[in-house]
Automatic annotation (TrEMBL):
Cofactor comment: Binds 1 zinc ion per subunit.
PROSITE patterns in the record: SIRTUIN
Binding residue positions for Zn(2+): C150, C153, C174, C179
Keyword Transferase among record annotations: yes
Single GO MF descriptor: histone deacetylase activity, NAD-dependent
Protein name, UniProt field: NAD-dependent protein deacetylase
Record-listed E.C. numbers: 2.3.1.286
InterPro entries: DHS-like_NAD/FAD-binding_dom, NAD-dep_sirtuin_deacylases, Sirtuin, Sirtuin_cat_small_dom_sf, Sirtuin_class_I, Ssirtuin_cat_dom
Family membership noted in the UniProt record: Belongs to the sirtuin family. Class I subfamily.
Entry-linked PANTHER family: NAD-DEPENDENT PROTEIN DEACETYLASE HST2-2, NAD-DEPENDENT PROTEIN DEACYLASE SIRTUIN-5, MITOCHONDRIAL-RELATED
């Protein structure tokens, strides 16, 4: 997985199709195979920050940790020697603490109506399953938290120990004493390959009669390339706070700029599905509330502040140590000078 430079040129007037005709074509059956790509923006209303939004995104929030660069926290080469920042924030981003949004529920409704051809998600929060989207319709392109292994020797690690480590904000280490590698959930880090199904599944994009892209900046390859695989003439709908990728370059593109949850509500209204959508969402949230009661934990900001304080304390100790050595040396030097030059 790699981050890409924002080089796409987006024309200023990009909304050339319209949402009403997309809704009409869903209603009259001309659109029946919807391929979806989602990103962090569909989960922000669940309380989980996205990555790149200025100020509110995770990468800006990580500033107090003074990482070499923000994405390092999810880079395999950084994690291999410094897994602490990842585990410091893991609890706040762990699926147990979250509940699905109405955007997730909308995708579940598409599936229920037999319209969801396939969903590619870059998210690892697992909220697709909580909303009731059938797992055989989803590719978790950036992996998930369901299993874990030692990054070094690849040995699997037990779920209960992993849960405990995440709960305590501690780094779990390989149980093989001679190894000592940190345990990594099976999520895809920068510098790692996507699941092997990705190459095979990306072909389904060409089978779709609507490409729906929600809540992603389209800045990370290879998922960012998927919208371009939609056949020419097939409408592409972006529901996002901002324009992304090459949306707007095709005449059949429609951009609904704003919160995903508002976008899916508007679409549901046009389709006459609004009540059904709200009910499906409420049921999914209620089912998750029962789990949440036992899993309240520190917020992301609290996790970051705690880790930053620990780092400052460590730095304080080493600064103190350095001062002590400097004082010791200058005392020695002063003593030596007070005795005058010596000849042997
Ligand atoms: P980004 O943070 O890059 O982009 C999120 C997009 O969603 C931005 O364009 C936001 O403007 C938009 N957005 C945020 N909240 C929204 C809302 N409520 N409604 C609509 N749009 C909203 O996140 P991704 O594109 O998912 O990888 O990032 C891709 C990958 O980069 C992630 O999977 C992650 C990251 O580094 C790893 O962690 C390894």
């Amino acid at each position: 997985m790699t981050e890409i430079e924002a080089t796409e040129s987006i024309p200023s007037t990009s909304t050339q199709g319209d949402i009403e005709s997309i809704a009409d074509n869903i209603k009259n059956g001309h659109i029946s195979r919807i391929v979806v790509l989602t990103g962090a923006g569909i989960s922000t209303s669940a309380g989980i920050p996205d990555f790149r939004s200025p100020t509110t995104g995770l990468y800006d929030k990580l500033a107090p940790l003074k990482l070499p660069y923000p994405e390092a926290i999810f880079h395999i080469s950084y994690f291999s020697h410094s897994p602490e920042p990842f585990y410091a924030i893991a609890r706040a981003r762990h699926p147990g603490n979250l509940k699905p949004t109405i955007s997730h529920a909308f995708l579940a409704l598409l599936a229920k109506k037999g319209l969801l051809h396939y969903l590619f998600t870059q998210n690892i929060d697992g909220l697709e399953e909580d909303a009731g989207i059938p797992t055989d319709k989803v590719l978790w392109a950036h992996g998930n938290w369901k299993s874990q292994h030692c990054w070094k020797c690849k040995t699997e690690y037990p779920d209960d120990l992993m849960k405990r480590a995440i709960h305590n904000g501690e780094v779990p280490y390989c149980l093989k004493a001679e190894c000592g590698g940190a345990i990594k959930p099976n999520v895809v880090f920068f510098g790692q390959s996507l699941p092997k199904e990705f190459d095979e599944k990306e072909k389904v994009v060409g089978q779709g009669d609507l490409m729906l892209v929600m809540g992603t900046s389209l800045k990370v390859a290879p998922c960012s390339t998927l919208p371009r695989l939609a056949n020419k003439g097939v409408p592409r709908l972006l529901i996002n706070m901002e324009k992304a990728g090459d949306f707007g370059n095709r005449k059949e593109d429609v951009c609904m700029l704003g919160p995903c949850d508002d976008g899916v509500r508007r679409l549901a209204d046009l389709l006459g599905w609004r009540d059904e959508l709200e009910t499906l969402w409420k049921d999914a949230v209620d089912a998750k509330e029962d789990v949440l009661k036992f899993q309240d934990g520190p917020s992301l900001d609290e996790c970051i502040a705690k880790m930053a304080a620990q780092m400052d304390a460590r730095l304080g100790i080493s600064k103190g140590h350095k001062n002590m050595l400097e004082n010791h040396l200058s005392d020695k030097f002063a003593q030596m000078m007070s005795k005058g030059p010596s000849c042997q």
